[in-house]
Specification:
Length: 370
């Protein structure tokens, strides 16, 4: 069915199709519309799920963990300060190997209080064992939530997935949306290590030095397995529904001398900048990183790179630029732009490319390279 929707409504629509048994929710701007829409469907009898209006984000993840460990499919959503409050339980979800799907509407962290888009909230959780994917359109938000359940629940993965969409820039933007019944695309959920409530047993007990590292390695092994599962899932999704995705979305990059790299809506804005630069005779292209965990394999040899980070790791660098340096030995022109919802247009991105200085860092708006 073809309709129009915001990014938040698209996420809710995908959740409705997957019918989680348990949905735990706590409102926070700019995510609130997701759980409000889901709550309305549950109240109207259109979605047969147990909806738990908890007292905090920490409790929302705790409720999902308690439900998931019994073998129930679960969902929650959050943003910014809520994700920070959830941090302890985010680690527990991955460590317990529970395939929870969560939508995170990217928003800057306080202080000062700010409700606009930034990626630092999710990037701070990058080492918890969650898979992370960043979307750039309303349609992609819907499709990625559907695929997230199949990936998370795959027997060779069994790790939670965080689906990220930019606050307001995508969560509240209206675009066309095609919704489909997933049918058997997402199989019924079966958790191999589900607890049996009829036969109580201990879970999450103290783990000593002789065994703890084995559990850590098992998460890493499953994260590596997820790279293949993601590719296979996206390929099958394309065959069934005609919409194509990959861990990295390339735009006019095949013959590019300079490549712009970003995530989320900045990655889509970069495509317009690329067209503008091409008309000027600059052979530019773009790569939009969709899956940040697991981090994709990239061949960037022989290219100049302009990396735009809507985030920062203080005392280090932009997190995306730092990740690319670590994995590819590239020396990009690092641009810090869009923090706290700072406006970044395709003209600005084109300007970054024209004025690029490999190995340097630019804070957009500060007017100096460092």
């Amino acid at each position: 069915m073809l309709t129009i929707a915001t990014g938040n409504k698209a996420v809710a629509a995908a959740v409705k199709e997957l019918r989680p048994a348990v949905i735990a929710a706590y409102p926070i701007t700019p995510q609130t519309e997701i759980v409000e829409q889901i709550a309305a469907w549950v109240a109207a009898g259109e979605l047969d799920s147990s909806y738990i209006p908890v007292e905090s984000e920490h409790s929302a993840m705790a409720a999902c963990i308690g439900a998931s460990v019994t073998g129930a499919r679960t969902f929650t959503a959050t943003s910014s300060q809520g994700l920070a409050y959830m941090h302890e339980m985010v680690n527990w979800a991955a460590g317990a190997r529970l395939p929870i799907v969560m939508a995170n509407v990217n928003r800057a962290l306080a202080p000062g209080w700010n409700i606009w888009a930034e990626h630092t909230d999710a990037f701070q959780e990058r080492d918890t064992g969650w898979l992370q994917v960043y979307v750039g359109t309303v349609q992609e938000a819907y499709d990625t939530v559907v695929m997230a359940y199949r990936i998370a629940e795959h027997e060779e993965v069994l790790l939670p997935v965080m689906v990220n969409l930019d606050g307001f820039l995508l969560s509240h933007s209206t675009q066309s949306l095609e919704t489909d019944s997933p049918g058997d695309f997402v199989p019924p959920f079966r958790l191999p290590h589900a607890i049996d409530v009829a036969h109580p047993a201990g879970y999450g007990t103290l783990t000593g030095p002789d065994d703890y590292f084995r559990f850590r390695w098992d998460i890493e092994r499953s994260m590596r397995n997820s790279s293949r599962v993601i590719r296979e899932t996206e390929q099958d999704f394309s065959r069934r529904f005609g919409r194509t995705y990959a861990p990295v979305e390339e735009y006019r990059a095949d013959d590019a001398d300079v490549v712009v790299i970003a995530v989320g809506t900045l990655g889509k804005e970069a495509e317009v900048a690329v067209d503008l630069l091409r008309r000027e005779g600059i052979r530019a292209g773009s790569l939009r990183i969709r899956w940040f965990r697991p981090f994709p394999d990239l061949d960037l040899s022989g290219r100049e790179l302009v990396v735009i980070d809507r985030d920062y790791s203080f005392g280090f660098s932009g997190i995306l630029a730092g990740s690319l340096r670590a994995r590819t030995r590239a020396d990009p022109y690092s641009v810090i732009a869009g923090l706290g919802g700072q406006e970044v247009t395709y003209d600005d991105i084109a300007g970054f490319v024209r004025g690029r200085e490999p190995g340097r860092e630019l804070w957009f708006g500060v007017d100096r390279n460092v």
